[in-house]
Amino acid sequence: MILLVHEDREYCRERGDTLETDLGVLEIPEDVNAGETLETHLGEPFEVREMRGPDLFNHLDRTGAPMMPRDIGLIIGHTGIAAGDRVLDAGTGTGILSAYLGRVGANVTTYEIDPEFAEVARSNMETAEVADHVDVRVGDLAETVDDLVADGERFDVLTLDTEDAPEVAARADDLLVPGGYLVAYVPFVEGTRAVVEAARESLGDVETFETIQRRMDVGDRGTRPSTAGVGHTGYLVFARA
Q1: Which of 239, 109, 71, 67 is nearest to 170 (CA)?
Q2: Which residue ranges does UniProt annotate as crossing the membrane (predicted)?
Q3: Of 119, 78, 71, 70, which Cα lies nearest the Cα of 95?
Q4: Domain 56-240 adopts which CATH fold?
Protein backbone atom coordinates (compact mmCIF):
# COMPACT_ATOMS: atom_id res chain seq x y z
CA MET A 1 0.00 0.00 0.00
CA ILE A 2 1.09 3.57 -0.67
CA LEU A 3 -0.15 6.97 0.38
CA LEU A 4 -1.12 9.60 -2.21
CA VAL A 5 -0.97 13.15 -0.86
CA HIS A 6 -2.37 16.34 -2.40
CA GLU A 7 -2.22 19.36 -0.07
CA ASP A 8 -4.56 18.42 2.82
CA ARG A 9 -5.90 15.25 1.17
CA GLU A 10 -4.59 11.70 1.60
CA TYR A 11 -5.62 8.49 -0.12
CA CYS A 12 -4.43 4.95 0.62
CA ARG A 13 -4.18 2.76 -2.49
CA GLU A 14 -2.40 -0.25 -3.97
CA ARG A 15 0.19 0.10 -6.70
CA GLY A 16 -1.58 -0.50 -10.00
CA ASP A 17 -4.92 0.88 -8.73
CA THR A 18 -6.91 3.77 -10.18
CA LEU A 19 -7.76 6.76 -7.99
CA GLU A 20 -10.84 8.75 -9.02
CA THR A 21 -11.53 12.09 -7.32
CA ASP A 22 -12.85 15.52 -8.21
CA LEU A 23 -9.20 16.35 -8.94
CA GLY A 24 -9.21 13.89 -11.81
CA VAL A 25 -8.36 10.26 -12.54
CA LEU A 26 -4.96 8.99 -11.45
CA GLU A 27 -3.53 5.75 -12.85
CA ILE A 28 -0.99 4.41 -10.34
CA PRO A 29 1.94 2.57 -11.97
CA GLU A 30 2.95 -0.82 -10.59
CA ASP A 31 6.56 0.34 -10.25
CA VAL A 32 5.97 3.75 -8.65
CA ASN A 33 8.37 4.66 -5.81
CA ALA A 34 8.03 6.85 -2.74
CA GLY A 35 9.06 10.41 -3.45
CA GLU A 36 7.71 10.46 -6.98
CA THR A 37 4.92 12.82 -8.05
CA LEU A 38 2.01 11.57 -10.14
CA GLU A 39 -0.53 13.72 -11.97
CA THR A 40 -4.20 13.14 -12.63
CA HIS A 41 -5.60 13.56 -16.12
CA LEU A 42 -6.45 17.14 -15.04
CA GLY A 43 -2.83 17.84 -14.12
CA GLU A 44 -3.28 17.78 -10.33
CA PRO A 45 -0.12 16.50 -8.57
CA PHE A 46 -0.04 13.77 -5.91
CA GLU A 47 3.08 12.95 -3.90
CA VAL A 48 3.73 9.24 -3.34
CA ARG A 49 4.69 8.10 0.17
CA GLU A 50 5.20 4.74 1.83
CA MET A 51 2.73 3.97 4.61
CA ARG A 52 4.01 4.57 8.14
CA GLY A 53 2.43 3.78 11.51
CA PRO A 54 0.54 7.08 11.85
CA ASP A 55 -0.80 6.65 8.31
CA LEU A 56 -2.15 3.23 9.24
CA PHE A 57 -3.87 4.72 12.30
CA ASN A 58 -5.63 7.22 10.04
CA HIS A 59 -6.53 4.88 7.16
CA LEU A 60 -7.23 1.37 8.48
CA ASP A 61 -10.90 0.36 8.57
CA ARG A 62 -12.44 0.96 12.00
CA THR A 63 -14.68 -1.36 14.01
CA GLY A 64 -14.53 0.76 17.15
CA ALA A 65 -12.29 3.19 18.99
CA PRO A 66 -8.68 2.07 18.38
CA MET A 67 -5.84 2.33 20.86
CA MET A 68 -4.10 5.68 20.51
CA PRO A 69 -0.49 5.88 19.23
CA ARG A 70 0.64 7.48 22.49
CA ASP A 71 -0.52 4.41 24.43
CA ILE A 72 1.03 2.04 21.89
CA GLY A 73 4.29 3.95 22.18
CA LEU A 74 4.32 3.49 25.95
CA ILE A 75 3.62 -0.23 25.55
CA ILE A 76 6.51 -0.70 23.13
CA GLY A 77 8.87 1.50 25.15
CA HIS A 78 8.00 0.00 28.53
CA THR A 79 8.17 -3.67 27.48
CA GLY A 80 10.90 -3.37 24.85
CA ILE A 81 8.94 -5.39 22.29
CA ALA A 82 11.30 -6.16 19.41
CA ALA A 83 11.65 -8.23 16.26
CA GLY A 84 11.16 -11.92 16.92
CA ASP A 85 9.21 -11.50 20.17
CA ARG A 86 6.04 -13.53 20.61
CA VAL A 87 3.03 -11.46 21.65
CA LEU A 88 -0.33 -12.84 22.79
CA ASP A 89 -3.11 -10.28 22.48
CA ALA A 90 -6.80 -10.25 23.43
CA GLY A 91 -9.32 -7.76 22.08
CA THR A 92 -8.09 -7.24 18.52
CA GLY A 93 -10.74 -4.71 17.49
CA THR A 94 -9.52 -2.70 14.52
CA GLY A 95 -6.07 -4.23 14.95
CA ILE A 96 -4.11 -1.01 15.41
CA LEU A 97 -1.95 -2.42 18.21
CA SER A 98 -1.32 -5.66 16.31
CA ALA A 99 -0.35 -3.72 13.17
CA TYR A 100 2.16 -1.57 15.06
CA LEU A 101 3.68 -4.60 16.78
CA GLY A 102 3.84 -6.51 13.52
CA ARG A 103 5.68 -3.63 11.90
CA VAL A 104 8.41 -3.74 14.56
CA GLY A 105 8.83 -7.43 13.73
CA ALA A 106 6.98 -9.08 16.60
CA ASN A 107 4.93 -12.22 15.94
CA VAL A 108 1.43 -11.57 17.23
CA THR A 109 -1.38 -14.01 18.01
CA THR A 110 -4.51 -11.96 18.66
CA TYR A 111 -8.00 -13.04 19.74
CA GLU A 112 -11.24 -11.26 18.77
CA ILE A 113 -14.64 -12.57 19.88
CA ASP A 114 -16.60 -10.88 17.06
CA PRO A 115 -16.11 -12.75 13.74
CA GLU A 116 -16.93 -9.65 11.67
CA PHE A 117 -14.42 -7.54 13.60
CA ALA A 118 -11.83 -10.29 13.13
CA GLU A 119 -12.40 -10.26 9.37
CA VAL A 120 -11.88 -6.50 9.22
CA ALA A 121 -8.72 -6.87 11.32
CA ARG A 122 -7.36 -9.50 8.90
CA SER A 123 -7.96 -7.11 6.01
CA ASN A 124 -6.20 -4.36 7.95
CA MET A 125 -3.19 -6.60 8.51
CA GLU A 126 -2.98 -7.07 4.74
CA THR A 127 -3.13 -3.30 4.28
CA ALA A 128 -0.40 -2.85 6.90
CA GLU A 129 1.65 -5.57 5.16
CA VAL A 130 2.05 -7.55 8.40
CA ALA A 131 -0.25 -10.50 7.68
CA ASP A 132 2.77 -12.82 7.93
CA HIS A 133 3.43 -11.57 11.46
CA VAL A 134 -0.13 -11.32 12.83
CA ASP A 135 -2.46 -14.29 13.33
CA VAL A 136 -6.02 -13.06 13.95
CA ARG A 137 -8.13 -15.73 15.66
CA VAL A 138 -11.82 -15.72 16.52
CA GLY A 139 -12.46 -16.59 20.14
CA ASP A 140 -12.21 -15.58 23.79
CA LEU A 141 -8.67 -15.83 25.11
CA ALA A 142 -10.00 -16.45 28.63
CA GLU A 143 -11.53 -19.69 27.36
CA THR A 144 -8.35 -20.68 25.48
CA VAL A 145 -5.73 -20.24 28.21
CA ASP A 146 -5.87 -23.88 29.33
CA ASP A 147 -5.27 -25.11 25.78
CA LEU A 148 -2.32 -22.77 25.29
CA VAL A 149 -0.78 -23.84 28.60
CA ALA A 150 -1.33 -27.53 27.79
CA ASP A 151 0.48 -27.01 24.48
CA GLY A 152 3.41 -25.40 26.30
CA GLU A 153 2.86 -22.03 24.63
CA ARG A 154 4.85 -19.20 26.19
CA PHE A 155 4.96 -15.55 25.14
CA ASP A 156 7.26 -12.59 25.69
CA VAL A 157 4.38 -10.15 26.12
CA LEU A 158 0.68 -10.54 26.89
CA THR A 159 -1.53 -7.56 25.96
CA LEU A 160 -5.17 -7.29 27.03
CA ASP A 161 -7.92 -4.90 25.94
CA THR A 162 -11.00 -6.81 27.09
CA GLU A 163 -13.60 -6.72 29.86
CA ASP A 164 -12.34 -10.03 31.23
CA ALA A 165 -8.74 -8.78 31.47
CA PRO A 166 -8.58 -9.52 35.24
CA GLU A 167 -9.44 -13.18 34.57
CA VAL A 168 -6.66 -13.55 32.00
CA ALA A 169 -4.22 -11.50 34.09
CA ALA A 170 -4.64 -14.03 36.89
CA ARG A 171 -3.24 -16.67 34.51
CA ALA A 172 -0.50 -14.50 33.03
CA ASP A 173 2.30 -16.33 34.82
CA ASP A 174 1.30 -19.54 33.02
CA LEU A 175 1.55 -17.81 29.63
CA LEU A 176 4.68 -15.66 29.93
CA VAL A 177 8.34 -16.56 29.64
CA PRO A 178 10.49 -15.63 32.66
CA GLY A 179 10.84 -11.85 32.56
CA GLY A 180 7.92 -11.45 30.17
CA TYR A 181 5.42 -8.62 30.48
CA LEU A 182 1.70 -8.35 31.05
CA VAL A 183 0.07 -5.18 29.70
CA ALA A 184 -3.61 -4.35 30.18
CA TYR A 185 -5.35 -1.37 28.60
CA VAL A 186 -8.36 -0.52 30.77
CA PRO A 187 -10.87 2.35 30.29
CA PHE A 188 -12.12 2.66 33.88
CA VAL A 189 -10.57 2.89 37.34
CA GLU A 190 -12.64 0.01 38.71
CA GLY A 191 -11.40 -2.38 36.02
CA THR A 192 -7.86 -1.14 36.49
CA ARG A 193 -7.91 -2.04 40.17
CA ALA A 194 -9.23 -5.51 39.36
CA VAL A 195 -6.37 -6.12 36.91
CA VAL A 196 -3.79 -4.86 39.41
CA GLU A 197 -5.11 -7.14 42.14
CA ALA A 198 -5.11 -10.15 39.80
CA ALA A 199 -1.59 -9.41 38.56
CA ARG A 200 -0.23 -9.07 42.09
CA GLU A 201 -1.18 -12.68 42.84
CA SER A 202 1.58 -14.12 40.63
CA LEU A 203 3.56 -11.31 38.97
CA GLY A 204 5.86 -8.55 40.16
CA ASP A 205 6.73 -4.96 39.27
CA VAL A 206 3.06 -4.00 38.92
CA GLU A 207 2.68 -0.39 37.75
CA THR A 208 -0.24 1.65 36.44
CA PHE A 209 -0.12 4.74 34.23
CA GLU A 210 -2.51 7.20 32.68
CA THR A 211 -1.04 8.72 29.53
CA ILE A 212 -1.84 12.42 29.09
CA GLN A 213 -0.67 14.17 25.95
CA ARG A 214 -1.21 17.85 25.15
CA ARG A 215 -0.66 19.42 21.76
CA MET A 216 0.98 22.86 21.77
CA ASP A 217 -0.45 25.72 19.71
CA VAL A 218 2.25 28.04 18.38
CA GLY A 219 0.90 31.30 16.94
CA ASP A 220 1.63 34.99 16.47
CA ARG A 221 0.15 35.89 19.87
CA GLY A 222 2.12 33.27 21.77
CA THR A 223 2.47 29.60 22.59
CA ARG A 224 0.13 27.62 24.83
CA PRO A 225 -1.34 24.11 25.27
CA SER A 226 -4.20 23.42 22.90
CA THR A 227 -7.70 23.47 24.37
CA ALA A 228 -8.84 20.83 21.87
CA GLY A 229 -8.09 17.13 21.52
CA VAL A 230 -8.48 13.89 23.43
CA GLY A 231 -7.59 13.91 27.11
CA HIS A 232 -8.14 10.58 28.86
CA THR A 233 -8.14 7.40 26.79
CA GLY A 234 -7.44 4.61 29.26
CA TYR A 235 -5.17 3.25 31.97
CA LEU A 236 -2.19 0.99 31.28
CA VAL A 237 -1.26 -1.69 33.79
CA PHE A 238 2.19 -3.30 33.46
CA ALA A 239 3.45 -6.33 35.36
CA ARG A 240 6.39 -8.70 34.91
CA ALA A 241 6.75 -12.43 35.27
Answers
A1: 239
A2: none
A3: 119
A4: Rossmann fold (3.40.50)
